[in-house]
Amino acid sequence: MKKILVYVTPDKRSSFFDIVVAYDSQFDVVVPYSLIDEDEVSDIIHNCVFTRHPKNLKNTAIFFGGDDPTASKKLFDAARTILEGLPEDSSVSICLEPKGASTTASACVGKIREALGGKLSGAKSLVLAGTGPVGQRIALLLAKEGSEVSISSRSKNRAASVCSRLSDEYGLEVDGVEISGEDSLAYALMECDVVVSCGSKGVRLLPKSVWSGNGSVKVFADVNAVPPYGIDGIQPYDDCVEREGRLFIGPLTIGSLKMKIHRSMVEKLFESNRQVFDIFEIYSLSE
Ligand SMILES: NC(=O)c1ccc[n+]([C@@H]2O[C@H](COP(=O)([O-])OP(=O)(O)OC[C@H]3O[C@@H](n4cnc5c(N)ncnc54)[C@H](OP(=O)(O)O)[C@@H]3O)[C@@H](O)[C@H]2O)c1
């Protein structure tokens, strides 16, 4: 029985990365559907569940990808609702992984949890440039773990609109702060336990002069794998490396765990026909 992954995205282009990982995770065929809107989801679901005998449906799964997490989540939520209305054996597994963000965030927060000895609750966290897909998901996971989380942006309005969307979509509260220079950056870092750098590729967000002068931060993590890295002085393979009394987690250490989580999730999709992986289920794979 061939293992088939249906790759659904609201974007024009399917993600080459996600498709390669699917083939490398033992799917035989990947069927990309692009420019999909919510009205088309039920047809895709019905085509998946009614083409194979129920006992074979674990060999079909649907992956929701895309560059805009909110647009992809709308498709995923529509699929989940439709599947919940079908008989239990007439189902297929689904996952939501827009822009690689949930697996990256899960790896990053998993590593931070490890650095803090397993306890994130009560920690104060700052997600620098947390308005992108990866930063938003890191903020969600830290908040879910009981951390008090702020995300920063160059724009107060952008930070506020992301926080309000995360609250609407996931019911978790995150604060938004504007950072416009080294003074506001140093101020935002004050009393933080955890700082995660989540800016675009090759954007340095945190100079050493600022982090070195701060006494509270215990863990620095950076997901930007393209030099210059987001945090001055961090090394890509840092795996809880100590510098000046703080622990550093570099982007390639996070990237390597991210790949393990991504493959593990894709493989689990065909363990049964009723697997559902959104951000928190994906995060559980980091344990
Ligand atoms: N390590 C891994 O395995 C892995 C996997 C996937 C992605 N990544 C990396 O994770 C990072 C975040 O990904 P993403 O898709 O969430 O990023 P993104 O959307 O490209 O950017 C995140 C935020 O960076 C800020 N930003 C952009 N240009 C900037 C500039 N010139 N100066 C200061 N801030 C700037 C923006 O925030 P504001 O406009 O709100 O200020 C933006 O919302 C990227 O570096 C990506 O390459 C790593």
How is this structure best described in words?
The protein is of the alpha/beta class and 287 residues long. The protein has two domains: 4-96, 3-Layer(aba) Sandwich (Rossmann fold); 103-255, 3-Layer(aba) Sandwich (Rossmann fold), CATH 3.40.50.720. The protein has ten helices and twelve strands. The chain has helices at 16-24, 41-49, 69-84, 101-115, 133-144, 156-170, 182-189, 208-212, 251-269, 279-283; strands at residues 4-8, 29-33, 60-64, 93-96, 124-128, 148-153, 175-178, 194-197, 219-222, 239-243, 246-249, 276-277. The strands form two sheets. Strands 7-6-5-8-9-11-10 form a seven-stranded mixed sheet, sandwiched between helices. A five-stranded parallel sheet has the order 2-1-3-4-12, sandwiched between helices. Helix 1 (16-24) links the parallel strand 1 (4-8) and strand 2 (29-33). Helix 4 crosses helix 5. It is elongated. The mean pLDDT is 95. It binds NADP nicotinamide-adenine-dinucleotide phosphate. NADP nicotinamide-adenine-dinucleotide phosphate (NAP) is lined by residues 99-100, 104, 129, 131-135, 153-155, 158, 198-201, 203, 223-225, 251, 254-255, 258.
Give descriptors for this structure.
287 residues; alpha/beta; Rossmann fold; 2 domains; seven-stranded mixed beta sheet; five-stranded parallel beta sheet; 12 strands; 18% strand; elongated; binds NADP nicotinamide-adenine-dinucleotide phosphate
